[in-house]
Specification:
Length: about 525
Amino acid sequence: MRDTISWRKDLCKKLRNSDELQQYIVSSLVNADTKVQQRELKRLAQLIADVELGLTLLKEVAPEEPATSVEALLKGYHFPVEQLQSDRNWQLIQNARFYLIKRKGRQWLRVLQEYINLPEIIRIYSLEEARNVPQPIPSSTYPTRLEKIYLPTLLKTPQHRQRKVKLADEGRWYAKISQKGNSPVEVPIDIPKEVANIAPSSVVSLRRTRTKQNPQCSVTREELILAAQEMDDKLSQFGQQENYCNRLENILFELYDVESDNFQHGNQLTLEGLIHIVGLLNVGKSTLLEILIYFFAKQGDRCGLMVNDVATAVRLASLFCHKLGIPAAPVLGSKRQEQLAKVYEPILKSEGKEITKGGMNPAWRWFSPVCPLLALVQSEDKWEFGNEPCHKLYQKVLVADNDDSDDEDWQESDEKYTCPLYYKCPRHHLEHDIATASVWIFTPASFIHTRVPRQGFEQDLTFAEAVYRECKYLFVDEADRVQIQFDEEFAPDEVLVDGSGNSFLNKQAKTFYIVHQMTSSQFYQNRQWEIF
């Protein structure tokens, strides 16, 4: 997550303290108590800042357009109009979409109307109706907001939020747990000094391998055959025969040649930009990917691999990590109980050294159900596997004295802390391994939604962002299946184009005033033929 509110903190504070806005609130909420007025004062201060930032974006990008066009700009579509061809304008729009993420769509029209209803003495833009072109007010009481706050903000991409792990110390703590859909129950936890001092800081740090530049890389068939032979030799020590070398030797490389616009026999793969590896079923595409990952990871490059399901992710991560000697880890979501059910039968129960004699598959390390904090819970209520309150511990704070009561009133603190056993907890072994791994293996869902762990990562990122920053290569196996999951996630039921005028692209054209002014022949002509 990015820091999208710090830019307006000082501005909102000044607005809340302004006599003009306070007088407006008092006159609007005559019979409301002080708390209600203060909440409304805070809300309107934020609304003013956000709307004026959006109107400043419009002034810089499309100054002749009505205020409603900000809604279309915030959608983020690169419409084929002159105003959006400038790199500077496009960057301003991308930055604004971060800051105004809660003002997109219909929200913009709603807050814009509220802004119009405010007295002009509070505003810096004159606007009587939403479809009018906003104009700066020359005699505004706040002339510096435009040049000193809004323009510098639009020119700067918000940074990712920094996360600091605050460990709970000695004392009584609490956690809220919910079992089987029941209402949350408050559980007391007594943490002694010895536990609080077990691991005061992280024992791992993110192993960084990526540089700013990512030049092309080439690998020969002979190098891959040697790597495949190494893989076979290592696997043979576990009694596993994968025959990577033999399978690779049976693959015929046909490489695309730009000059001849055809495929020609070759012995060297060059990886640069987006590369497609195609072939019939069972010709060795997945085999080639695994050998490539082994080859590059052994050289010290971090690789990402996206597969179709959790079981495949865990199987391959265990293969690289526990048998091939390449640090690897699966990237899994928060529903660990469901994931354990998916991998137990095919992997954890059946694979592993002397597992029939009571041995344990090394991949159990990533699914440990042990939560040491349970031993400190002072209640019969316990949380279940997968619902541990690792980062949700809180204490009670004393509320201001109540003259009508002799009893002290304690309530839940808003500040949340992390379990003091976090850095040593077996439940978080996977986070240790992710920070030091050379290979990250995802499913489409974990790639999109899962956030990086607090161990090893100071910034709050999704793994999609982390891959862009930290991986030199990203491989996608079974790309057609992965694409289906992406489609279901981002556009589950959307008609791209048809003749009704209600398809996705048609509706997008109507949302942007500039594009709507284009003639029908310009926007619609031959579009079906161009797409299909």
